[in-house]
Amino acid sequence: MALTFSRPQEARQIEARSRARTLAVKVQVIEPGMAYSTRSQSQPGTVYTISRERHGWACECPGYVHTGCCKHLAQVERRSEREGWNFGRIAPRTVA
Question: What is the reported pTM?
């Protein structure tokens, strides 16, 4: 069953891009165009992995788990635009 939200995915992604820029989110390359990591700004010592999966991009952070979008994914998308590669889409979140 798909999750439903009060705001559409596109609006959540725009907000996430703004947060990524405003908060200066940094991502480190694990595998170019496939996997990145980032340090949590709210939980020191926590590192999240952002990876391209079969159905799209996903992040391990609570923001993505709960809303299907996060500032980390947005930062990888922004990076793809700067570097000239196709980001694709964010993987849909589903209820098990």
Answer: 0.86
* φ/ψ of residue 92, rounded to 5: -70, 145
Residue 28: burial class (beta carbons within 10 Å; 0-12, 13-18, 19+): exposed
Residue of 79, 80, 51, 64 whose CA lies nearest to 9? 64
- Residue 61 pLDDT > 90: yes
pLDDT-based confidence at residue 2 (cuts at 50, 70, 90)? low
β strands within 1-96, DSSP E:
28-31, 35-39, 47-53, 56-59
pLDDT confidence band for 93 (50 / 70 / 90): confident
Residue with tokens 């793809």: 80
Place of tokens 């694990």: 30
- Find the DSSP H helices in 26-95: 62-67, 71-83
